[in-house]
């Protein structure tokens, strides 16, 4: 019913429409058994490795603290550690450096000597929440209001400009122009570049850093490092192994929890702990957030279980009763439900109360009201979709999208993440959170649009016929609209939602940086999850699974 992110596909003998909904394979079945991927990396917990690693990190921290006289060197260093996904070790040093850089640059109105330096400085400062004005690029604009064509000969500058353009907020025309100009130039130059430079340009065009998943891109970036890194790559390799062992331990915890719960109570539910864990690992990337990832994964498992109840098992009358029970959040309200629904609601009720109690113990706030509302909102949206199917009614595109934002499950994942992170929880902030602000609704919209965009490219004719889709409804409402035009329209909507996300941490600052990062990471996961190749497989995601849980760096 919903287009929740689905990493594994288990065929079910059910209606043709429902089978089509389940056919959105997001990881091949070779990853069904998570234990297959658990390899022996316990040696990287050895104290000697940890001590050597800590010593090298200390040396590099010292390096960053002592480059204030060379702003470009410091900017390049920060860019490198970000791309290698080890920047979490350097938070204080990065903040101190960028604070100095911002004060100096803003006071003098000068952010660099050339295009590549200005674009890099602009991007790094904006990524860390400094509201650098887009007019820093004015000096590269000609009398016609366009970027000087001569800049196109500077490939490094074009790549940096393209990266910077993805940090735009609504209304920044100059950054829209920057993105179009740099993209056009780089695509034109690409056939004439050597192999190494061509690879760099392709990565920039296909995976701009701000919208890409650093955890996945780190290995791709490592092959392009040069002598300036002076050992950073080796630090990243050891760090990767240490973090990988943490993820493997967490996945084992989840697998054991699910065996204990699912085997006894939720026998009808899908057995896909890797599927659920991948999502929490993608949202909460800091290695220190181990307990938070495990708890979030438990909640994610119920998204899939309830999704199956609405898609496969429940009649419309039963779904009405189940939705009413979730809205009431009352154990006594399940009396008239079929047994499998009673079991599911009781398990969800117990888990949500357990998580709420842990948050209260750790952070002094009981989030039960906010958490139960997210489950109610999702079930209400699922029920709307069930009624559309039962009645044969086709919703308007905007109506479908508005409901799809709630049925996407993003609200559940992000609201749970907010309370599990536990930073700066206040009554005012919780009230904002309960109203589904853009820091949540934008990722939810992105999920829905990426999913429907992937579905519109499917070669499965049954799926195209039966599956609800914003692309489909938009074409129906706009007579003569081609699939290409509809897809282009959706991509423009995706671009707009990213601008809204950028605006959240540049201007609004309603939530702590850790939660904003979680929202961004959720959004960065989506292209990885929904990019299909010509064989309808997900090569990037399959590589990501093997990389993080099985393969070497």
TrEMBL record:
Domain Terpene synthase metal-binding positions: 260-499
Domain of life according to the entry: Eukaryota
UniProt GO molecular function: magnesium ion binding; terpene synthase activity
Organism: Quillaja saponaria
InterPro entries the UniProt entry points to: Isoprenoid_synthase_dom_sf (IPR008949), Terpene_cyclase-like_1_C (IPR034741), Terpene_cyclase_plant_C1 (IPR044814), Terpene_synth_N (IPR001906), Terpene_synth_N_sf (IPR036965), Terpene_synthase-like (IPR050148), Terpene_synthase_metal-bd (IPR005630), Terpenoid_cyclase/PrenylTrfase (IPR008930)
UniProt keyword annotations, A-Z: Lyase, Magnesium, Metal-binding
Name by which UniProt lists this protein: Nerolidol synthase
BP terms from Gene Ontology: diterpenoid biosynthetic process
Presence of keyword NAD: no
Gene3D superfamilies noted in UniProt: Farnesyl Diphosphate Synthase, Terpene synthase, N-terminal domain
Domain called Terpene synthase N-terminal: residue spans: 46-190
Cofactor requirement: Mg(2+)
